[in-house]
Design brief:
alpha/beta, 2 helices
């Protein structure tokens, strides 16, 4: 069985950890996953995640229009 696994990550100004989180997810043996990142109005608006999503369609970025805490 190869069920889809959804990984949901909140993000607020955490660029220092995004690549590390992505590498950890990619290193898993289960490959049928999607990574949904909810950006809580970060200063860079999730730019690093947007760049990663260009090369890996399993990454989805949702940007909130204001900081919700």
């Amino acid at each position: 069985m190869n069920d889809l696994i959804s990984i949901i990550t909140p993000n607020f100004n955490n660029n220092a950890f995004i690549d590390r989180a992505y590498q950890s997810i990619k290193a898993q043996t289960h490959t049928n996953w999607e990574w949904i990142v909810i950006d809580d109005f970060s200063e860079d608006r999730g730019q690093q995640i947007q760049e990663l999503s260009k090369t890996d369609p399993r990454i989805k970025l949702i940007c909130l229009s204001y900081n919700q805490g």
